[in-house]
Amino acid sequence: MNQYITEQKISLTESVILIVEDDPINAVVIEDLLSGLYQTKIVHSGEDALISCDAQPPDLILLDVMMDGISGLETCKTLKNNSQTQHIPIIFITSMHDQDDQNRCWEAGCVDFVAKPVNGVTLRNRIKAHLTLKLQTDLLRRMSFVDGLTGLYNRHLLEDVMAKLISDVNRSKQTLSIMMLDVDWFKGYNDTYGHIAGDECLKSLAGVIKESLQRPIDLAIRYGGEEFLCLLPDTDQQGVEYIANIMLKSVQNLAIKHKLSEFKMVTISIGIHTISSTKNTSFDDILAKADEALYAAKQLGRNRFSTYVPKV
To answer: Is residue 268 classed as helix, strand or coil in its secondary structure?
Structure first.
């Protein structure tokens, strides 16, 4: 499972519910009400809730409003202002019945609230309704990230994962390598063999690209047309060049005929850029440098990789 992509739950029983309640007894009571229906986790403060959500976002949060330290309202607002957690439905558990208090709950970003003392039937039904909606929404969202032709992820996924990747690079000082790939003389291939054959060629290349990535955390993306993008977290230049060589040889082993190619078969060119810090660097800049390396590979004769070299 790729850590940068939200896992698609198959059933409600796989859903994880985070219970945020500063009273240990109340927390256990709520957990018992959900026993056997969902996976649960308990934390006792808003601070711990934020840490838990950052490490492993739950599918739904039951959040006490009145807590020491960061209040439930502030915790909710913080989660809703974070692009990585704003999609999590939050149900407030509250003893406040005043309309102004309830309005503040809605304004903070909750999807519902349940009054204390908690009615087990009401709680379970509201959780079921919101989790069912979230499961359906997550499925549609995930489908929107998949390229219909190749089965690889599409470029829309970049917006979803790049913030996480860049955050990891800056926090852990790990490297991130990016490969931009282009099919050599592909317009000529389409013109010669037809678009149906061109689609079959792209599907075969996508399979090879995906198989060449050797870890679950690596991502293969159809970037557009005959261009592909691979994101390799925690991979240095030596490691990404090793993968690039595997891809080049694997594409050659497909032996897809291409009479307009200088190599008489379909080949790819690859541009590589490796970073260890993204300070003052946007993702557009990172892509531009990978694209510059790809252009260099094309200029050097195609069917090869080239690594970005900073200008002096």
So the answer is: strand
